[in-house]
Specification:
By secondary structure, the chain is an alpha/beta fold. Helix content is 43%, strand content 15%.
Length: 264
């Protein structure tokens, strides 16, 4: 399948590293003009340089803004006033005793993982709808469905994001704009290797170590290895394309079969 996003403009929030950087790279390879977002100019410039080393002719726009704030959303709109593809990837996560999570921490998770996406959707969806074409994608997590007790605040925020997606898909009905969630499973991102080696034999080669980790600590995974960020990006690039025009209101899993369900 040939996916050509030439002429489309995309914004990927939180795209200076990890899954966000992989998504930005995938969209750029497909020909899209891509906004690279981070909170500091240094991080954004470093991410742009890294992406250009992989896609030399990439058309990239720096979007230096904390999009978890109202002011940051407005700065994003100044950098990219017109958008065809919005990927709400920004998120925070962490472990905590569920009985010790403070009100302020609950609010922080809602602000970053849910309200940031809502603000940008409100900002860009009307223009997409008027033009009759657009793609909104919210990066969710298997934790939205399989709520971990030690990450209940994170899981709950991602569950809310699934509801946000479905609701805005209904708002966009009949306009040519699709709105979907991508449910990412356990992913090989920064810091994960150290986490894995804290739990398994450090003498094992990485490929074997991650498989041992998945068998012993994530046995419900059918893939039996961590997902690479590029594999999640592949789904996002497809959903951003004309070929995905009939897919909307969905929660599409790139979870390696981690969620034990016969439904998407």
């Amino acid at each position: 399948m040939l996916i050509d996003l030439t002429g489309r403009t995309a914004l990927v929030t939180g795209s200076t590293q990890g899954i966000g950087a992989a998504i930005a790279t995938g969209l750029a390879r497909a020909g899209a003009r891509v906004g690279i977002n981070g909170r500091t100019e240094e991080r954004v410039e470093r991410a742009i340089a890294a992406l250009r080393s992989e896609v030399p002719d990439a058309d990239l726009v720096p979007v230096v803004a904390d999009v978890a704030t109202e002011q940051g959303a407005l700065l994003a709109a100044e950098a990219l006033p017109r958008l065809d593809i919005l990927v709400n990837n920004l998120g925070v996560f962490g472990e905590a005793d569920p009985l010790e999570i403070t009100d302020d921490e609950w609010r922080r998770y809602f602000e970053v993982n849910v309200l940031a996406a809502i603000r940008l959707i409100r900002q860009y969806l009307p223009g997409m709808s008027e033009r009759g074409w657009g793609r909104v994608q919210n990066i969710a997590s298997d934790s939205a469905v399989v709520i971990p007790a030690e990450m209940i605040h994170y899981g709950t925020s991602k569950t809310a994001l699934l509801a946000v997606t479905r609701g805005y898909a209904k708002q966009a009905a009949g306009t040519g704009v699709t709105v979907n969630s991508v449910i990412a499973g356990p992913t090989h991102t920064g810091g994960v290797e150290d986490f894995v080696y804290d739990l398994v034999d450090r003498s094992l080669p990485w490929d074997e170590a991650q498989r041992v980790f998945m068998r012993e600590y994530r046995p419900q995974s059918l893939l039996q290895r961590l997902i690479e960020p590029e594999e999640i990006a592949n789904m996002v690039v497809y959903l951003a394309s004309d070929q995905a025009s009939a897919t909307t209101g969905g929660a599409l899993r790139v979870d390696g079969g981690y969620v034990d369900s016969i439904l998407p």
